[in-house]
Predict the structure.
Amino acid sequence: MFEDKIVADLSSSTGESSEMNEKESVPQSDSREKVALELQSSLNLDSAVKAELKNQLSGDCMEVCTELLAADCPDQTCLKEVPSLKEESPTDSNIGSGDKTSSDAEAEAGHGLENDSSEDFKDADFVGSPTNCFFGKWEGFSAIPEWKPAPKRRPERGALNLAVLSGILPGTVSDEEALQRNWEDLSGIHPPVLGQEGSGRFEFTVMCYNILSQNLLEMNKTLYAHCQPEFLNWEYRLKSILEEVKRWDPDVLCLQEVQEDHYREQLESVLIVSGYECIYKRRTGIKTDGCAICYKSAKFSLISCVPIEFFRPPADILNRDNVGLITLLQPLTPETAEAENVRTSKVTPVCIVNTHLLYNPRRGDIKLAQTAVLLAEIDRIARINPEEEIYYPIILCGDLNAVPDSPLYAFIRNGKLQYRGLFGWKVSGQEDFSHEPFQRRLEVPLLPNFLGITGSCQFTALCQKKKTARQRYGREFLLQFRYCEPALKRPEDLILIPGVTDLKPEPPTDCPQTGLKIIQPDQDPLLSWSATIKHCLNLTSAYSHFLPKKVRPEVSTLPMGYGVTVDYIFYSAEPIGRGQRGGRRQYRDGPLKLLGRLPLLSQEDLWAANGLPNRLCSSDHLSLVVKFGLDPVVS
């Protein structure tokens, strides 16, 4: 017996061999309790985990032992030696079925998950969890020939499951400790221009935050079955969101999923009192949420604002209700604050962009089209001179619903993407749909020509017209005029040379003498899309998407239980390499300097606080906060 083996090992190490004989006479319940206590020592658990085990030994001793054995022994060999555990370990017929599929109808609403019941979602283990080795499919294991499903697990068992996933048991780390985010100061990398403060650098902070629309929360309650109900109440969430904004005190605030009635009745008035000017754009159609850009009136003045709608019929690929906002803000320095014209400032305007792209993980083609339209609008608004490709500093914030190093992310960062034949689900990299029989592929052209957007994400009206005219009238267009009447007429000032200039060309027999049909000029080559889409805005991410101290990837949200990053702050930088063979482009800071950022957390950190939303974070996304410095223009 496995129990006897453990006791024998322990007794031999302490020199008390008589304990084995004493154990055989102990009642069955006491025997199980001792086995559990011995197992925790053999698994090298820390004191916090041991304390948690002792609290649960009273009612379900063997249940806890079995789960710990499975977590430490993925191949189930340990269970073969404990027959009593096989007979009494609990399971759930639904556990291990954590795979969720997305429906297009709900994906358009912003989440795209099936309406699973709260109990099923609460009990489902997440992909990649160590508990899957125990609560998975048992058909292939000879160690357990017969298995009877037990009743559904109690809430506290679910809490233990999340602890196994995160590696930390509830109660061992407080929510404050698990969610602690220490500011990362990068100002030492970019000292002021003159090596001292007051040199003219304009410093400001930007926050990007998806605050989770209450309507979307109510429509997708199964996604938040793990949360305590009181933390999902809007009044509680509103207070927590405003406290977070107040804590970091950003100069520019970019919000997504802002419910319109909450914005009009609550958020706008509070932010105005706090010194912000607010701009809001609701999603088109029947959607009730949208995006907002709020900036401190003491630090910026508004030059222009352009709302962007991605619903542009009759373009089939632009048929969703997502939106964006593009603003051009003029920084206010002490000198310009007193001047009548802020344009005399030596600090250039800043282009602030906020957007929320489509969620549906299958429709990467739509996300790429929305991104192309957004970049074209940025190209038009942020240009310093319409005749040149020179731009004001750009800061692009938003929930892009794409993971780092996905094709969509690479396109924004590297400025180039070969998209012909790319699977739609691969564009954002959110989920793997390679198992599905039908998979949508991207085709050329990505956007219809009537939009007037080129494959370089620019409007044709802003492109150089000399180049356009020179390439437009090609050889085929000009050859059709060689036998027209003006071409056959001899110029009066032409010197007469017998046999050379006295001859009149004869048109071919198949050439019509009258009613010449003029072929229209070739299509504008700027609208001739290729298999590659480009842009020239030179954007890089303010985050590295990795936590070196924890050796874990950063995550900004927990869709379906696993952590990913979908929220970003991109900013203008100077490229120092184009990346070989489609590799990652390298950047260095230009006039816009990255001075600091608030690091994100790991998946383990978030599950230690029972996921998102929780008591301290009232959204299913973490906020991003970045500090920038804008150097003055050198005369």
